[in-house]
Write a structure and sequence with these properties.
Blueprint: H1 4-21, H2 37-79, E1 83-88, E2 93-98, H3 108-111, H4 122-138, E3 142-150, E4 156-167, E5 173-182, H5 184-206, E6 210-215, E7 220-223, H6 225-231, H7 235-238, H8 252-265, E8 269-277, E9 283-294, E10 300-309, H9 311-333, E11 337-341, E12 347-350, H10 353-358, H11 362-366, H12 376-395, E13 405-412, E14 418-429, E15 435-444, H13 446-468, E16 472-477, E17 482-485, H14 488-493, H15 497-502, H16 505-508, H17 511-529, E18 538-546, E19 552-563, E20 569-578, H18 580-601, E21 608-610, E22 616-619, H19 621-627, H20 631-634
C-alpha cells in the first residue's frame, strides 16, 4: 500500500496532467527522480510536458503567421488605387478590396454578392460579358479592357480591368479574379485633349492660311486643308510628297540651301512669294514662315510653318504692270490726249499726242496753268461743273449717269490758230471709292466744229427757205407717223408743226383719200417684197386733207422712200402742194365739157374734130348716124 507521501506525489502528478489537458504545459514536478517509481514517473511527466509544450508552441506560431500575412495583404490591397476582386462563374462578387470600388458609392455590404450586370448599362454589360467569356473559353488572362461602371447614383465611372480564371486546388475554374482601376481622370484628360486637338484641328482646317510640317528630308508629314486647296492635291496624294515635287525645278537647289540654313542656325526664316507648282502645273505663290521642329528631347525632327496664299496678289500685280505697260504704249501712241490733273487743276500727266495736236510738248503744256490756256468763261464753266461733280462724289450721290463729265473747250495752238478740244472727265479713286485725282480724255474736234458751223449755216439757210415756201415738206416712219413737217403747213392747213406731229394719219386724211393712199402704199411695198427695189421710185398722189377749221384741202403729194445703208425702207419723204384751186378748175372744166358735149350730141348737123395730122379725134351722134360707123370705129 502506498504511503501518504507517495499519495501526495501521485495527486500532484494528476493535477499537473489535468492542467496540461487544459492547455497549460508550464507546470513542473519537483520530486522527479530515478531512485523510486513515483520519482521516475514524475521525471517522465516533466519530459512529456516539456516536449508537448514545445510542440504546441511551434504549432501555435505556425498558425499565427498566415493570419498575420492575410492581414498584411488586406492592408496592402485596401491601400492601393486599384481594386482586387473575385467572382463566381456567374459573375457575382465574392471578394473585393481596394480604393477603386470606394469611388462607386457602394458599401461592402452593398457589393457583396452583387452581380456584375447590376454595375453596368446594356452596352457595357455586353462588353464585360465578352471579356469574361473569352477568358473562360481560352483560359488566357485579359490584361486590360476599358468599360464604364455605374456608380450607385447611376453616374458612369471609367475603369480599366484585367481578368483571369480563379481555379481550385485541382485546377478547376471556380470563378474569376482580376483588378479594376479607376481611369476616369485619365479618360477626362483624354477627352479634354481630344477636344483641344479637335479645336485646334478645326482652326487649322478652316483657316485661310496654310500650315505644313515636313520631316528633315522634306517629305510632307502634316498639313491642313488650305494647303490642299492651294496646290490642288487631294490629301491622300499630298501626304508624304517630297518638296521637290511641288517646287519649280530651277528653284529646288535654292530651296534646299534655305532650309539647310534653318537647320544649321536653328533660326526660322520667312520666304516672300515662295513659288510652288500646283497639281495642274500652274505656279502659286505663298508668303511662308518656316522654323525647325524639335523632339521633346530637343533633337531636330523636321520643319514646320504657316503660309498665306498671295497668288492673286502676285498675278494681279503682274497683270497691273503688264496693263500699265500696254496703257503706256497706248497713251503714247493714241491720237487722243490722255491727261490727269490734281484738284487745283494742275496737269500731272499728258500723253505725247498733245504735241501732234497743239504743237506744244507735254512739258510745255504742264508748265502753263490751265486757267491761262482757255477763255475765262470756259474756265469758269469747267471749274463749276467739276466742283459740282466732286461734291457729288465725296457726298456719295454720284450716280452712273454722272460718271463722266463731257465738255468742249477752245484752246490755242503754237501757231496761234484756234483748237477745239472735246473731252470727258472722271475721277481716279482709291480702294474706298474716294476720288484722289482727275482723269480726262480729249480729242481734236476743230474740223468737226468747222463742219458743224457750216452745217448750222446751211441748216439756217434751208430753214429760211422751208419757212418761206408754200409747199409742205414732211418726213414719216413706216407706220405713217409724222416725224417732221415744215412750218408752211400752218399756212396751208392751219395746223402748227407740233400739232401735226401729234396727229394720226386717220386724223389727217378723209376716209376716201386714206383708203386710196394706203392702197397705193401697199402696191409699192409689194414691189419691194418682190425684190424690185428702186431707190428712185416716186409716187404722186392727190389726196384730200382735213383743215383745222373743219374744211378740206386737196394736195398733190410726191412721195419717195428713205432707205438705210442696206437699201431697206425705213421711212417716207414727201412734198405736198395745195391743188384745191386747180382741182376746182379741173372739176369746172369737166362739167363745162360735159355740158357742151351734150349740146353737140343733140344737134342734127354733123360735127367732127380733126387734128393737124388729119386724125379724127371727136364726132357727134349725128355724124355717127350719117357715116354708119360706131364712134369707137371712127376714133
Amino acid at each position: 500500500m502506498a504511503s501518504k507521501h507517495e499519495k501526495d506525489h501521485i495527486r500532484k502528478i494528476v493535477d499537473v496532467l489535468s492542467r496540461a489537458a487544459k492547455g497549460d504545459y508550464s507546470a513542473r514536478l519537483d520530486f522527479a527522480s530515478k531512485d523510486d517509481p513515483v520519482g521516475s514517473l514524475a521525471a517522465a511527466v516533466n519530459t512529456l510536458l516539456e516536449k508537448t509544450g514545445k510542440k504546441i508552441s511551434s504549432i501555435s506560431r505556425s498558425a499565427e503567421e498566415p493570419a498575420l500575412d492575410a492581414g498584411r495583404y488586406r492592408n496592402i490591397l485596401d491601400g492601393i488605387d486599384e481594386t482586387y476582386f473575385e467572382t463566381d462563374l456567374e459573375g457575382r462578387l465574392l471578394f473585393f478590396s481596394g480604393a477603386a470600388m470606394r469611388e462607386t458609392g457602394y458599401t461592402r455590404k452593398d457589393l457583396r454578392g452583387l452581380h456584375f450586370q447590376e454595375l453596368v448599362d446594356e452596352i457595357n454589360a455586353r462588353k464585360v460579358y465578352e471579356a469574361f467569356h473569352e477568358v473562360f473559353v481560352t483560359g488566357r488572362t485579359n490584361k486590360g479592357f476599358e468599360w464604364e461602371l455605374l456608380k450607385k447614383n447611376k453616374e458612369p465611372l471609367d475603369v480599366e480591368s484585367s481578368v483571369a480564371l480563379l481555379c481550385d486546388e485541382k485546377g478547376k475554374p471556380v470563378g474569376f479574379r482580376g483588378m479594376i482601376r479607376d481611369i476616369s481622370r485619365r479618360k477626362q484628360v483624354e477627352r479634354d485633349l481630344r477636344r483641344e486637338e479637335e479645336k485646334y484641328r478645326n482652326i487649322l482646317e478652316n483657316m485661310a492660311d496654310t500650315y505644313l510640317e515636313t520631316d528633315l528630308k522634306g517629305n510632307y508629314t502634316f498639313f491642313n486643308d488650305s494647303l490642299c486647296r492651294v496646290l490642288g492635291y487631294p490629301r491622300e496624294e499630298l501626304q508624304g510628297i517630297n518638296y521637290r515635287r511641288v517646287t519649280p525645278p530651277e528653284r529646288v537647289e535654292e530651296v534646299y540651301r534655305e532650309f539647310a540654313e534653318i537647320y544649321t542656325t536653328g533660326r526660322g526664316k520667312t520666304f516672300a512669294e515662295h513659288e510652288l507648282t500646283a497639281k495642274d502645273g500652274t505656279t502659286v505663290y505663298l508668303d511662308v514662315s518656316m522654323s525647325l521642329l524639335r523632339s521633346p528631347a530637343g533633337e531636330p525632327i523636321g520643319f514646320g510653318g504657316f503660309g498665306r496664299d498671295v497668288t492673286e496678289k502676285v498675278r494681279g500685280r503682274r497683270k497691273l504692270k503688264e496693263s500699265e505697260r500696254h496703257l503706256r504704249l497706248i497713251t503714247d501712241n493714241v491720237s487722243d490726249i490722255i491727261w490727269t490733273m490734281d484738284f487745283d487743276l494742275r496737269f500731272t500727266y499728258l500723253s505725247p499726242s498733245v504735241f501732234r495736236i497743239s504743237g506744244f510738248t507735254p512739258g510745255e503744256v504742264m508748265s502753263v496753268p490751265f486757267k491761262e490756256m482757255v477763255p475765262p468763261e470756259n474756265y469758269a464753266y469747267f471749274e463749276e461743273l467739276l466742283a459740282d461733280q466732286l461734291s457729288k462724289a465725296r457726298g456719295g450721290t454720284y450716280s452712273d449717269k454722272d460718271r463722266t463729265l463731257p465738255f468742249e473747250i477752245p484752246m490755242m495752238r503754237r501757231d496761234g490758230s484756234r483748237l477745239w478740244i472735246e473731252g470727258n472727265v472722271d475721277f481716279n479713286r482709291d480702294e474706298n471709292g474716294r476720288p484722289f485725282e482727275i482723269i480726262g480724255v480729249g480729242r481734236d474736234i476743230t474740223e468737226r466744229k468747222g463742219t458743224e458751223e457750216k452745217l448750222k449755216e446751211s441748216e439756217e439757210r434751208y430753214r429760211m427757205i422751208a419757212e418761206r415756201m408754200s409747199d409742205v415738206v414732211w418726213l414719216a416712219d413706216m407706220n405713217l407717223r409724222t416725224l417732221y413737217v415744215t412750218p408752211s403747213i400752218q399756212a396751208v392747213l392751219g395746223f402748227t408743226p407740233e400739232e401735226r406731229m401729234r396727229q394720226t394719219v386717220e386724223e389727217q386724211l378723209t376716209p376716201e383719200s386714206l383708203s386710196y393712199g394706203l392702197e397705193a402704199l401697199a402696191q409699192q411695198l409689194a414691189l419691194e417684197e418682190e425684190g424690185k427695189t428702186d431707190p428712185g421710185r416716186k409716187a404722186t398722189l392727190v389726196l384730200e386733207y382735213y383743215c383745222k377749221d373743219g374744211s378740206t384741202c386737196w394736195m398733190e403729194t410726191v412721195m419717195t422712200g428713205i432707205r438705210d445703208e442696206q437699201g431697206i425702207l425705213t421711212g417716207l419723204y414727201g412734198v405736198s402742194r395745195d391743188v384745191t384751186d386747180r382741182r376746182k378748175a379741173e372739176e369746172a372744166l369737166r362739167e363745162s365739157e360735159q355740158k357742151y358735149r351734150e349740146l353737140i350730141n343733140g344737134m342734127n348737123e354733123t360735127v367732127w374734130v380733126i387734128d393737124f395730122d388729119g386724125t379724127l379725134i371727136d364726132v357727134n351722134n349725128a355724124a355717127v348716124e350719117m357715116l354708119g360707123y360706131s364712134k369707137e370705129e371712127l376714133l
